[in-house]
Amino acid sequence: xxxxTQLDSQxxxxxxxxxxxxxxxxxxxxxxxFWYVQYPNQGLQLLLKYLSGSTLVKGxxxxxxxxxxxxxxxxxxxxSVHISDTAEYFCAVSDTRGNKLVFGAGTILRVKS
Amino acid sequence: xxxxxxxxxxxxxxxxxYVELRCDPISGHTALYWYRQSLGQGPEFLIYFxxxxxxxxxxxxxxxxxxxxxxxxxxxxxxxxxxxxxxAVYLCASSSPTRNTGExxxxxxxxxxxx
Lengths: 113, 115
Description:
The complex is a heterodimer of chains A (113) and B (115).
Chain A: E1 3-6, E2 10-14, E3 19-21, E4 23-26, E5 31-38, E6 45-50, E7 56-58, E8 64-68, E9 73-78, E10 87-95, E11 102-103, E12 107-112
Parallel strand pairs in A: 2-12
Antiparallel strand pairs in A: 1-4, 3-9, 5-6, 5-10, 7-8, 8-9, 10-11, 10-12
Chain B: E1 5-7, E2 10-13, E3 19-24, E4 31-37, E5 44-50, E6 53-56, E7 65-68, E8 75-79, E9 88-95, E10 105-106, E11 110-114
Parallel strand pairs in B: 2-11
Antiparallel strand pairs in B: 1-3, 3-8, 4-5, 4-9, 5-6, 7-8, 9-10, 9-11
């Protein structure tokens, strides 16, 4: 079984500042890792994913994440945030069949002007 | 529209009543998932269909919850004898078998409130 811990429930940050949203996972088997974003009044959408290969993964809207197997982490980063990045971000893990995602509790990113 | 459609978007019911929530996945997506999201928590897996059959129903909390997908497209999540603890947003997602492993396309959810 897999589990995900998102270490911060809320992250406030000023516009144009860098941000890192932390995610740690636990699994006894190889995993796929994902970040999903939920904008206000919208459904969840995929931001980026790690399946295999390069541990640095780039996603939409300038976000990237790095898979660190030794630290069991998959932190999400953006060098310069915009007001429009205000949303809730969910880290998720699955086994390599990819059939059942286990989500973290989410991190609310609040970008202030 | 081309996305996952869920109805109703909001449902208020009384304790003990029966509720049905409907999901219409993206055309051609053979995999369909139901998740439940309680306030302040991430989505919690309930059940996964591959075609018409439930491939994994290990997340259904008890026998009051049941889901069907009779023709391999639209799915209905059924909750009997609702309890206040069933109040949550019920999310449906679908995925394509041929591309983007692990990418689920989510609907906007059905918010269930049990009074």
